[in-house]
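chain below, 348 aa
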Amino acid sequence: MGLSVTVATAALEAFLARSAAAQCARIAHATPLTGGTLHENWRLAVDFDGGTLPGRQELVLRADRPVCLAGCLSRREEFEVMKAVWSAGVSVPEPLWVAGARGPLGREFFVMRWLAGTAAPEEVIARAADAAAGERLARQLGTELALIQRLRPGDDRLPFLAPAVPDRAQALIAATRAYLDACPTPHPVIEWGLRWLELNKPRPAGAVLVHGDFRTGNYLADAGELVAILDWELAAWGHPLEDLGWFCMRFWRLDADDNAPGGIARREPLLAGYAAAGGSPVDREALHYWEVMANVRWAAISIQQAERHLSGTDKSLELCLIGRRTAEIELESLQLIAADTARRSCHA
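prediction:
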C-alpha cells in the first residue's frame, strides 16, 4: 500500500483534484495509521487549489488489504453505509469520495475526513479509569447504537446488504458451523457453544442495522468524549442486541474486567444512553445470550485471523496474537454458559 501511494502519487492527486472540483491537489504528507487487521488506512495532508475544499485538508484514505475476511463489505459498500449513517446523525468521519479497482491505486478505496482523537484501546480505557469519564463515554456510545438502529431493512441506500433473515441467531450459528466444518482441525468447545446457542435462542426480533464490530478500538475518543464510530466493513441487518453483546465481550476490556462495555464502564450507563435515544427494550437474559454468541463467534473468527497469518497471505503479528488467544475466548464462552446454567438452577 505504501508503495502504491508513492508510485501513484500523481494519479491519486488527479483523482483528489477532480473529486473536489479543484484546479489541482498536492499530497504534502502520507502517513500510515496503525491498527486495523482488515484494511489499510493512511492519513493524508492535501493542499487543494480552489474547489469545494480549498486549502490544506487532513483526510484519511481507506483501502483493501491483499486478503479480506469473508463477509466483509467492499470499500464502495462501506462508503455507502457511512453515507447513510452520516445522514442519520451517527458520529462518523464525513465520507467524501470513493474509487474503484481501476482507479489510481489499482484497488478500491475511499476518502473521508480525518478527525482528532485516539482509537487505541489502552489509551481509551486508561482515560475511562475516571468513573465519570467512563460513564459519560458509555452513555454516548449507547446513544450512537440507538441512532444506528434507526436504519431498517428496505432502506434504498443500502440495497447491497444481504436481506434480513427471520432468525438472525440461527443464521449466525449456521455460518459459524459451516466454517468449522471446513476447518481441518477440530474445535469441540466452539461446536458445543454453537449447540448451546441453538438450544437457548431467545425470541427473534425485527432486524436493524448493526455495525458488526462495535468495540473499543473501533471508535475515536478525545479527552474522554466520543468523536466517531469507525470501521463499518461488517455492517449488516441484524438483531438489536447483537452489537451490545459484542461490545460487552471480555476480550475488549483488557485488564478492566469489571467494566463490561469495552473496559470503560458498567453496563448501566451504556444501556441508559441506548434507551434514552430510543433503543429497543433490553432483556438482560437475551443480552447475556448475545454476549455468549459474541464469544463463540469471535473464537471461530480468531482461528480465521490466525490462518491469514500462517498461510503467508497476510503476515501480521496482530493476526498471529489473536490466534493464540482462541482458548481464552473459548473459556469465556464456557464460563458465561455456566453462569446462565447456575442462574436457571436457582430459579428452578
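Strands lie at 24-32, 39-49, 55-64, 95-99, 109-113, 208-210, 219-222, 225-229, 236-238. The longest helix spans residues 284-310.
thats it, cya
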